[in-house]
């Protein structure tokens, strides 16, 4: 029986991927084989030694100490693109909220709840509406920072709304570039995007290069009166810089998924409670994808959509499979192959891939490996994780 510890609200369609005969899944597993979570912060948690993998049902992995886990041989997965449409649709809402006084006008209408006379109410509605007018999106320019799964969808949607779209992504993958309309204009640097955009939307991960990158300097490059949408991570912006840009009018609205006590106080901050991925569809997509990836790893040793290990996947050719991870240095695989040869064990198929400092190997063999053989492999210098699956 394998065990999975869960955190957060994981969609049942995802949890149901774990067959009851083979898996126990709950929030209370003391020594789980793997962890399945959403936004729970793991930085302060001490993981039991039993944990082989952590799957984030979602995109951002800044709640997971990935580098520490890599050193411990723990494979970290996420679910690329599985919630992108949900975020794209909340960006659409954010664009509209930033262009017309929608949320403020709704508050105004709610404030009229004690006006019981319909004629009187109509007069107040008509008199009040001029305070909440706005502009249209068509013809305006949207700057999209980060053109991955979400950014590309947002860029393409904005084009279909008749907006001009500028994109900035210095690390754009070839695959992501294929998803992007050729009508998106490339900005050579962040400031070039900020100075030309009426709306700016952020879709980058919170990593060293992006934490606090929307700071006073960025705001001085920003077009006067632009609107900033941040459904990516609160850490991307310098909060004081946002507040002072709102105060001076440089920024007309800050629309974000990450409230803070100071931002809530500001009348031109429009804040959601981290709602970007909270749709039935996205929650199911993420949970199913994360669960399937964990199952394939635990049962077959395959690694797909890891953020710290190479992608390694091989069809099963025999019932006996050894997987092992090692420091990415020469000769390790050769030594393991020699161990098998010395024991007259026939290798049917083999795959070896590396990523940065790590190499990962899958070897299908003709007979069941003994505990002694697995221990011998574990003893090879630079090998740090061995399994028979
Ligand atoms: N509010 C919410 O509920 C959600 C928030 N997110 C956030 O959105 C982020 C992006 O998600 P995806 O688009 O799915 O990820 P992704 O990995 O598909 O795309 C991220 C893009 O950012 C680019 N990038 C990295 N550093 C950059 C930099 N310094 N400047 C410009 N571009 C840079 C990458 O090249 C990549 O194309 C996640 O990391 C997460 O923090 C994601 C899903 C839901
Ligand atoms: O996928 C992401 O990066 C998200 O921020 C979604 O977070 P959640 O799963 O809603 O806690």
From TrEMBL:
Highest taxon of the source? Bacteria
Name all ACT domain ranges.
Answer: 321-389
- Functional pathway: Amino-acid biosynthesis; L-serine biosynthesis; L-serine from 3-phospho-D-glycerate: step 1/3
Q: What is its EC number?
A: 1.1.1.399, 1.1.1.95
Quote the catalytic activity from the record: (2R)-3-phosphoglycerate + NAD(+) = 3-phosphooxypyruvate + NADH + H(+); (R)-2-hydroxyglutarate + NAD(+) = 2-oxoglutarate + NADH + H(+)
Residue runs in coiled coils: none
Q: Which residues form the signal peptide?
A: none
UniProt entry keywords in alphabetical sequence: NAD, Oxidoreductase
Q: Does the UniProt entry include the keyword Oxidoreductase? A: yes
Concerning PROSITE patterns, the annotation shows:
ACT, D_2_HYDROXYACID_DH_1
Q: Its biological function?
A: Catalyzes the reversible oxidation of 3-phospho-D-glycerate to 3-phosphonooxypyruvate, the first step of the phosphorylated L-serine biosynthesis pathway. Also catalyzes the reversible oxidation of 2-hydroxyglutarate to 2-oxoglutarate.
Task: Please give the family membership noted in the entry.
Answer: Belongs to the D-isomer specific 2-hydroxyacid dehydrogenase family.
- State what protein this is by name: D-3-phosphoglycerate dehydrogenase
